[in-house]
Amino acid sequence: MAFLLIAAAALSQAAASAPIAQVKTVTGQVVIERSAQRLPVKIGDPLFEKDVVVTGPDGAIGITFIDNTVFSTGPNSQLALDEFQFDSNNFRGSMLADMRQGTLAVVSGDITRSAPGAMKIKTPTAVLGVRGTTFAVQVYGDH
Amino acid sequence: MGAITIDDGKTVTTLDQSYAAAESRAGSSQPVEESRGNISVIFRRAIAAQPILPHHFRLYFILGSDELTPESMTLYRSVFDDIKGRPIYQIEVIGHTDTLGDLRRNQGLSIARAAAVRDRLVRDGVDRDAISIAGRGKLDPIVPTGDNVAEPRNRCVVVTVR
């Protein structure tokens, strides 16, 4: 029994530390908030579950997830990568991103092949469910 | 064709047409008309920041070997050019076999095929650390067949460049 508990702890640690996406484009001011730190970001950097992507007034960033989903955000945006799990062997997984502010363009990847509702984007007023498509979201104003 | 559902807790709005739009405020969501021009203005910077999209390629092999067919040698150049056209890249190479022969030999062959493509890419100057490989043997054929069926289309690797 003790062995099983240790194995489970090791697995969740591995899952938390594996990159879920890679930064592909960056312009202007962009930072990643990770564990209460604000980190600068450059092309090629890995992103992890729970990271928050924040762009300034002239900032924009493009990232590609390990399931081939592509996200890009424009200026004055805040996007939290709340949950991401994906197994490339069987395309099973799920994604929850929290779009708090700004603009986001999406080209969905393999995770949407997993199951209906596998990919969700939360906004202040609604939750978007994604079934294999290209789309964009703007969050603005007081909410 | 895909679709988006917008659930605000009370209503669910579905968008399943090109350039369909919806607006969601506290307590209500509804479809709205938005011109293509407006959409491209609102999302101009986000779309400009979009990375080069991931591409998939299938390279085929000669029966029982990890040698590419002549046609796939030509396609290999396209894979290489695609990689070199990206400022930063990650590559996955997944090997497959047809269902001739036993499991163990095919598992080894599928990995050997993936490794052969990786090694060729590395020789041509692609960063080895950016490439991951795997073999699926005869268990996950591209074209489903019965056991012990010769099928050239299953002697392949799928290369994903992103």
Q: Please, could you describe this protein's structure?
A:
The complex is a heterodimer of chains A (143) and B (162). Chain A is 11% helix and 51% strand. Chain A is mostly beta strands. Chain A has a single domain (2-139), classed as Jelly Rolls. Chain A is globular and about 40 Å long. Chain B has two domains: 4-48, no CATH class; 55-161, 60s Ribosomal Protein L30, Chain: A. The longest helix of chain B has 21 residues, at 103-123. Chain B has 162 residues and is an alpha+beta fold. Chain B contains four helices and eight strands; from the N terminus they run E-E-E-E-H-H-E-H-E-H-E-E. Chain A binds chain B through residues 22-25, 27, 43-44, 60-64, 66, 68, 70, 72-75, 77, 88, 103-105, 107-109, 112, 123, 125-136, 138, 143, and chain B through 1-9, 15, 24-27, 29, 39, 42-54, 86-88, 90, 92, 160, 162.
Quick take:
The complex is a heterodimer of chains A (143) and B (162). Chain A has 143 residues and is mainly β.
How large, in whole angstroms, is the Cα Rg of chain B? 22 Å
Unreliable stretches covering 5 or more consecutive residues of chain B: none
CATH level-3 fold name of the largest domain in chain B? 60s Ribosomal Protein L30, Chain: A
Q: Which fold name corresponds to the CATH topology of chain A?
A: Jelly Rolls
Q: Based on DSSP secondary structure assignment, what is the total number of beta strands of chain B? A: 8
Mind describing the biggest β-sheet of chain A? 12 strands, mixed
Shape of chain B: elongated
Q: What's the CATH class label of chain A?
A: Mainly Beta
Total E-strand runs of chain A: 12
Helix content of chain B: 25-40%
Number of domain modules of chain B = 2
Distance separating the two termini of chain A? 48 Å
Strand-and-helix sequence of chain B, N→C?
Answer: EEEEHHEHEHEE
Largest interface: A-B, 43 and 36 residues
Mean pLDDT of chain A: 88
